[in-house]
Every structure is written in structure tokens, then in C-alpha cells.
Specification:
Blueprint (H helix, E strand, L loop, with lengths): L1 E5 L7 H15 L5 E7 L1 H12 L7 E5 L12 E8 H11 L3 H16 L8 H27 L4 E5 L1 H10 L6 H10 L4 E5 L9 H10 L4 E5 L3 H10 L3 E4 L19 H13 L3 E6 L3 H9 L4 E5 L1 H5 L3 H20 L3 E5 L18 E4 L1 H10 L1 H13 L2
Parallel strand pairs: 1-2, 2-4, 5-6, 5-12, 6-7, 7-8, 8-9, 9-10, 10-11, 11-12
Antiparallel strand pairs: 3-4
Helix pairs in contact: 1-4, 1-5, 3-4, 4-5, 7-8, 7-15, 11-13, 14-15
Length: 391
């Protein structure tokens, strides 16, 4: 669903609009289709009402079906457009003693049902049919919400390092990863990740300090277990740090930590970070020995390295590596470690993780930023959030 927002009065949080839209589309049970949702104020709505229906003044919702008329058969998946005035919705919500979100949900259902051929203007039987369908959809939303409450929905954490990489290519002040983090959060990301490298090739100290003050979800600092970076972490105190291996010559992190071979040093580092009131994650390969060693050194979380799986050239190899990740995630869960996964995941290869309940969070950066070049960061994050929440 494409969403455009063009109003400032009685405005609903864009993240809430997306959440409501996903709930409604899921409850409709109608498969793939394209809808454009335009959220406006009364002034714009009055113009649409006059221009297209010849009616004066604003209304609450308008629907323009693309499945009617001469060209309706060209694309059966193009449903049409829904326009909602949140000013009118806000007034109606206050009069009914309900929240604007509840009213917006009803109006969205109403508009989408019009696109699907339901109507209430031509006969009482059609009115009753549409009312019955509306009640059915709202009941499904309530049931789905209860089910979602009882089950764990995976989270998406977005890495904004590559925004800083573009900035550092010119050594100027844009694009700003701090602004990018805010956009990602508004689009539904539940965490922001940055890697403060020793060589400062992308994220800078300034970025980290500003993100600590501005991130509203959860800031995760990826870092090497190097004394300089440990001291910065203890000064900034993000809610979470992830210890990763780091080589100056590498383009990106190439593999997991050797926790087993560096137990003593890592145990001391974890202890210091815990004293700073930070949760500690270790970035490891899906190796049983490394996972057990992570528990032994006191980690709270493991992030399973998915890079080898993502880079596999043949399906058989990808499946083998994926099964290794599954086994690693299940082992981590049995050891009472929280489990996340990341590196190389994209809009296609993440689909294989559907049903893997042991993984609570997915850390993704490059594919989202690459997608954002074409569709914008907001849209790219929303698309990945939708994929992750379906896992």
C-alpha cells in the first residue's frame, strides 16, 4: 500500500497509520493488490469532494476504484485510491467518544470495501451487506491483535552506517545518520544500530553522542573490544552494545567473534560493560561451541552471523547454512540467551526465516539503504518491517 500524508491538523502518527493499514489489509484476507491511501485535512478533502462528486464541503472518506470503467481489466491488482480526512475523523471520534485511531480504522475499512465492490447508496440489502462485512473485518482485527499479543513478533533494527559512509566520502555534513535514524524509527524500526570503528571510516563520535540523545527505541552500539572504544561506550552508555570482530582492511565484518579462544578477555569486557548498565550482545557464527562460550562469558544476547548463508551461491548450500543458523538459534534460546540475527540479509533471503521463533530481532542495514536509493528511506524501512513482522 502506498501512503501519502498531506495534513497537519488532527494528524495521526505516520507509524500508527501504517500499523492500522497493515491490520486492516490482513483482516480483509484478499491477497495481493495495490492501493493508494491519501491522508489529508478538510480543505483538501473539500476540493476532492467538489471536483469528483460535485458535493460541497469536506467528508470523512472517499474511494476511487480502478476496477470500474473501460480500463478496469488492464491490471486486476490495482484496486484504486482511498482519501481520508483526519480533521473530519477527529471531530467524529470526539462526538462518538472514541479515539481518532479507532475512527480512522473504520473509515479505512469503509473505503477499501468500496474499492472491492461493496456499497451502501443503492439499496438496503447492499447497505446491510456492507455493514456485515465491516463488522466481520473489525472482529478479525480484534482476534488478530489478541493472537499477536500472545505470540512474539520479530523486530527490525536498522543499521545506518551506510548513510555515514556516503557522508564521509565527501567529508561534509550530509547525509546525516542521526536524521536517517529518526526516519527509520518513524517508519517502524524498533532499534537503531551503529558501528563505531577504530578507524572511524563511517560513524563518528559525534553521531554516537547525538543518537544517544535522540533515538526513541533502542540504540545498539557495535564495537570491537578495544580499550578506546570500550571507554567511549562507558561514557555514552547506550542501552545495548554488540561486540564484533574488526579488521582495518575489511570492507565489512567478515565473521563472528572467536569467543571460545578469547574467553578471559571477553569475560572481563562483558563485566565492565555490565557495570555501565548496558546489555551485551556477542556477534558469533552459528557454532555450538561459540554459542556456549558466549553464555559462559556472561553475554545477554547473541547475534548470529548470517553472512555466509546470504552469500551462498547454490540453493543446497544456502539451505545447509540456514539449518545451521536454526540450530544455533534454538541452542541460544535453550541457554536462556536472547537471539538476534544479521549480516547480508535482504528483501528476498529473509523470507526463509519465517516461523523461526527463536530469533527475536533482525539487524539489517545495507539492503535497506540500497533500496532507499530507489524508493526513499521511509518506504524501504516500512517494506522490511512488514517482511520481518510476517516471519
Amino acid at each position: 500500500m502506498e501512503i501519502q500524508i498531506n495534513n497537519q491538523q488532527n494528524r495521526i502518527d505516520p507509524a500508527e497509520i501504517w500499523k492500522i493499514s497493515r491490520q486492516v489489509l490482513k483482516a480483509l484476507r484478499i491477497g495481493e493488490g495495490e492501493v493508494s491511501l491519501l491522508v489529508v485535512g478538510d480543505q483538501a478533502m473539500a476540493r476532492y469532494n467538489q471536483r469528483y462528486l460535485g458535493r460541497r464541503g469536506p467528508t470523512n472518506v472517499l474511494a476511487f476504484s480502478m476496477q470500474e470503467g473501460l480500463f478496469s481489466e488492464i491490471n486486476p491488482h490495482l484496486w484504486g485510491d482511498v482519501v481520508i480526512s483526519t480533521e473530519t475523523a477527529g471531530r467524529e471520534a470526539r462526538e462518538a467518544g472514541i479515539s481518532i485511531n479507532q475512527r480512522f480504522q473504520f473509515l479505512l475499512i469503509h473505503g477499501l470495501l468500496h474499492l472491492l465492490g461493496y456499497d451502501h447508496e443503492y439499496s438496503e440489502s447492499e447497505t446491510r451487506r456492507m455493514e456485515a462485512k465491516t463488522e466481520e473485518v473489525m472482529a478479525r482485527i480484534e482476534t488478530d491483535n489478541k493472537e499477536d499479543t500472545n505470540m512474539q513478533i520479530p523486530r527490525l533494527a536498522v543499521n545506518v552506517d551506510h548513510i555515514a559512509t556516503v557522508r564521509q566520502a565527501r567529508k561534509i555534513n550530509e547525509p546525516d545518520p542521526v536524521i536517517a535514524a529518526g526516519i527509520a524509527e518513524l517508519a517502524g524500526a524498533e532499534g537503531i544500530i551503529v558501528h563505531l570503528r577504530e578507524d572511524r571510516r563511517h560513524i563518528q563520535d559525534r553521531d554516537l553522542f547525538m543518537l544517544k540523545e535522540t533515538v526513541k527505541t533502542k540504540l545498539n552500539l557495535e564495537m570491537a573490544a578495544a580499550e578506546e572504544i570500550i571507554r567511549i561506550a562507558l561514557k555514552v552508555r547506550p542501552p545495548m552494545v554488540t561486540l564484533v570482530p574488526e579488521k582495518r582492511q575489511e570492507l565489512t565484518t567478515e565473521g563472528g567473534l572467536d569467543v571460545r579462544g578469547h574467553r578471559k578477555a571477553l569475560k572481563e569486557t562483558v563485566k565492565r560493560l555490565h557495570k555501565g548498565k548496558m546489555a551485551v550482545s556477542l556477534f558469533v557464527d552459528a557454532d555450538p561451541e561459540q554459542i556456549r562460550a558466549s553464555k559462559e562469558v556472561g553475554a545477554d544476547i547473541i547475534e548470529l552471523h548470517t553472512g555466509h548463508y546470504a552469500e551462498a551461491k547454490k540453493e543446497k548450500e544456502a539451505q545447509r547454512l540456514f539449518e545451521r543458523i536454526v540450530a544455533g538459534a534454538e541452542l541460544g534460546a535453550r541457554l536462556d540467551l536472547k537471539v538476534s540475527a544479521g549480516h547480508g540479509l535482504n528483501y528476498i533471503n529473509i523470507r526463509r526465516f519465517q516461523g523461526l521463533e527463536a530469533i527475536e530481532e533482525y539487524s539489517i542495514g545495507h539492503s535497506i539503504i540500497a533500496r532507499a536509493v530507489y524508493v526513499g528511506l521511509d518506504q524501504a524501512v516500512r517494506e522490511m518491517v512488514a517482511l520481518v513482522e510476517q516471519l
